[in-house]
Amino acid sequence: MKSKLLSLLCIAAGLLAVGASTARAAAAPRVVTITVNEAMKFDVSAITAAPGEEIKVVLVNSGSMPKLAMGHNWVLLKAGTDAAAFSAAAAAAGAAAEFIPADQKAAVVAFTKLIGGKETAEVTFKAPTEKGDYPYVCSFPSHFLLGMKGTLTVK
Question: What is the CATH number of the domain that holds 39?
Answer without folding.
Answer: 2.60.40.420
